């Protein structure tokens, strides 16, 4: 009898053991493979060429130079294909058909609020809004001009985007903001729209025809119940599977021999824990799921689908089976064509375009003819600019004599309460302050397309250190109020140029967002810079305007010549800003109340700059112009600033 009770107790304990609670945890793994095209071209197609056509739009208005080649140099990159100039196995043509920039509308908003006493306050704000669109379409053709695919990248009412400015407390403040920033905002919006749609299209091309190396995060299910008899072994098997899958590459598949023991173990779990009790169904769920993952990465999709069906029949958590099964069925279809695995070598480094067909020869002749016409137009512009340079150069200052003659002069400005002695160190400080502000405005206004803002933002750190050095050189030459303001201005620059802040401003994929982020810092810096200039210039507005515009022009010219940007598009944006400042300076010359002597020096300085702006084409990178800019920067620019400051 005692033996009978002992046997019954053993069986009871065994039953409790097998049905005891089991916890599961996600077990992270990484898997590498080659994402195969969803709509593949023949595998022998290895090259492509691109062509961009801009109708009814000056690409300068979108932040590019007026050359379609700017776009061709950036877009597209298709993984598993090699770009060729012309005659690729496929040709991708993108056509931009003008743009629609709606009329800006002022939106007035009133918000009512009450204080604790019930007194009602109405807050009024104003902002500008409008809709905009850049219609674009594409055509993909084969060697003989047959259309493989075509469609729209942007057209119709659903493609319009809406711009909204920041809010301003008065309509006048909003109007002033728009007068100063409207052109650059529109340029950023157009460029951002084009960039976004082309980037999206590039992603679609890679999905449909590309061969993209991928490393993805995936999971297994592991046990987390130390008292359960399977806990340690289940964890060990998961670790073995993880190690085997980690050895996969885009070219090397998962080894069956390394995961075969894991499959056998998970199969044994299905038999060993077969009861219709929740803990056992939960453990079977982990086994079915892990086997489905293993078979998926083995590319044994029939067995992966079988395991997904097992998950459903197990009735613990059916939801995971749906996506796993759909993915397995899709990959089974993908690998039913010429390519039998998502792990193989596709090397196109030595790929060459096939001989040009008759259609491609005609296309190439038309392309070369268009390039020739454009080159002739640009050469004519260069010759006109070159012919005008000697005349402008004849009016240049004798820079060395000018610097020597005024370098030791001291002048005083200010009222009875405050006077500032201007010598060269103080003049350098004023230049550095203005150029720092010009640099910061560059980031916000116009260098926000295609990552151009990044270099300018990083340059701010160098500019700030120069600013600090110039301030330290001045010592006690500033009065207390001016010195305090300058210290505060430097402190604000320091806070704004920390790495985390500047990184948040570098958003080339979203120029409108970048500009909105910059509104508050720019307004703050503008107010503080103006305060500092007012103090040291005794509120002489003519001098303040001239010094600010000169800094804008010189800083942007330096960017256009000193190789800060690798992208010609960015250099051209900087040049356009310099040209705008030059035009405004010419207007200031006629309207200012400066002495005739200073006006004469100012005119000579503008004559020195004049050869740089004789052409519609950016010629600043040409050696003679680079030398001219450097010469002005080192000599006549600081010399004129010093004389302007020292003259009543």
Task: Set down the secondary structure blueprint.
Blueprint: H1 2-18, E1 24-35, E2 47-55, H2 68-74, E3 82-83, E4 90-97, E5 100-101, E6 105-114, E7 120-133, E8 136-141, E9 147-154, E10 161-164, H3 171-209, E11 212-223, H4 231-246, H5 256-272, H6 278-297, H7 301-314, H8 319-334, H9 358-393, H10 399-407, E12 411-414, E13 419-422, H11 424-445, H12 452-474, H13 480-496, H14 499-505, H15 511-537, H16 541-561, H17 568-591, H18 596-609, H19 623-634, H20 636-646
Parallel strand pairs: 2-3, 2-4
Antiparallel strand pairs: 1-11, 4-8, 5-7, 6-7, 7-10, 8-9, 12-13
Helix pairs in contact: 4-5, 5-6, 6-7, 6-8, 7-8, 10-20, 11-12, 11-15, 11-16, 11-20, 12-13, 13-15, 16-17, 16-19, 16-20, 17-18, 18-20
Written overview of the protein:
The protein is an alpha+beta fold and 648 residues long. 57% of the residues lie in helices and 15% in strands. A hairpin with a 4-residue loop joins β12 (411-414) and β13. α11 packs antiparallel against α12 (452-474).
Count of helical regions = 20
Helix % is 55-70%
Low-confidence stretches: 1-18, 388-418
- DSSP summary, beta strand count: 13
Protein name: Tetratricopeptide repeat protein
Signal peptide: 1-19
Keywords: Signal
């Amino acid at each position: 009898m005692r033996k009978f009770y002992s046997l019954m107790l053993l069986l009871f304990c065994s039953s409790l053991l097998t049905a005891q609670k089991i916890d599961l945890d996600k077990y992270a793994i990484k898997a590498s493979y080659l994402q195969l095209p969803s709509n593949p071209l023949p595998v022998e197609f290895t090259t492509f060429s691109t062509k961009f056509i801009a109708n009814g739009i000056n690409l300068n208005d979108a932040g590019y130079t007026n050359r379609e080649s700017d776009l061709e140099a950036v877009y597209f990159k298709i993984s598993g294909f090699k770009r060729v100039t012309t005659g690729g196995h496929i040709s991708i043509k993108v056509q931009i058909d003008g743009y629609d920039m709606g009329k800006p509308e002022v939106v007035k908003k009133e918000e009512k609020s009450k204080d604790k006493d019930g007194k009602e306050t109405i807050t009024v704000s104003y902002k500008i809004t409008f809709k905009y669109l850049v219609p674009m379409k594409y055509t993909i053709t084969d060697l003989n001009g047959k259309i493989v695919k075509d469609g729209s990248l942007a057209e119709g009412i659903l493609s319009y985007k809406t711009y909204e400015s920041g809010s301003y407390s008065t309509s006048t403040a909003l109007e002033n903001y728009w007068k100063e920033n409207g052109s650059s905002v529109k340029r950023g919006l157009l460029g951002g729209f084009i960039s976004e749609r082309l980037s999206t299209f590039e992603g679609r091309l890679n999905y449909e025809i590309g061969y993209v190396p991928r490393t993805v995060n995936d999971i297994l299910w592991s046990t987390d119940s130390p008292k359960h008899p399977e806990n340690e072994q289940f964890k060990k098997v998961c670790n073995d599977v993880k190690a085997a899958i980690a050895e996969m590459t885009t070219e090397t598949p998962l080894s069956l021999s390394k995961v075969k023991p894991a499959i056998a173990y998970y199969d044994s779990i299905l038999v060993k824990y077969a009861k219709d009790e929740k803990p056992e169904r939960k453990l079977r769920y982990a086994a079915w799921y892990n086997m489905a993952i293993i078979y998926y990465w083995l590319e044994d999709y029939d067995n992966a689908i079988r395991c997904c069906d097992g998950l459903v029949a197990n009735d613990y958590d059916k939801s995971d089976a749906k996506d796993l099964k759909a993915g397995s069925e899709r990959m089974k279809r993908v690998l039913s064509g010429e390519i039998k695995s998502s792990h193989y070598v596709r090397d196109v480094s030595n790929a060459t375009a096939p001989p040009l067909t008759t259609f491609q020869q005609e296309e190439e002749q038309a392309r070369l003819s268009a390039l020739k016409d454009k080159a002739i137009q640009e050469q004519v512009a260069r010759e006109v600019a070159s012919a005008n340079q000697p005349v402008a150069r004849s009016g240049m200052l004798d820079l060395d004599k000018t610097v020597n003659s005024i370098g030791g002069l001291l002048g005083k400005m200010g009222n009875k309460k405050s006077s500032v002695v201007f010598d060269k160190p103080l003049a350098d400080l004023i230049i550095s302050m203005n150029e720092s502000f010009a640099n910061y405005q560059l980031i916000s206004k116009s260098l926000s397309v295609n990552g151009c803002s990044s270099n300018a933002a990083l340059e701010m750190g160098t500019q700030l250190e120069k600013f600090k050095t110039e301030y330290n050189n001045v010592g006690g030459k500033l009065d207390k109020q001016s010195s305090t303001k300058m210290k505060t201005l430097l402190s604000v620059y320091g806070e704004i140029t920390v790495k985390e802040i500047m990184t948040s401003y570098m958003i080339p994929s979203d120029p409108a967002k970048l500009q909105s982020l910059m509104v508050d810092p720019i307004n703050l810096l503008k107010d503080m810079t103006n305060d500092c200039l007012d103090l040291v210039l005794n509120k002489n507005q003519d001098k303040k305007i001239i010094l600010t515009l000169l800094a804008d022009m010189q800083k942007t010219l330096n960017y256009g010549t000193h190789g800060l940007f690798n992208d010609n598009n960015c250099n051209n944006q900087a040049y356009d800003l310099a040209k705008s400042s030059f035009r405004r300076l010419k207007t200031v010359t006629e309207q200012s109340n400066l002495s005739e002597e200073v006006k004469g020096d100012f005119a000579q300085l503008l004559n020195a700059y004049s050869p740089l702006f004789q052409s519609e084409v950016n010629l600043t990178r040409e050696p003679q112009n680079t030398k001219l800019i450097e010469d002005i920067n080192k000599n006549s620019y600081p010399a004129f600033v010093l004389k302007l400051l020292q003259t009543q």
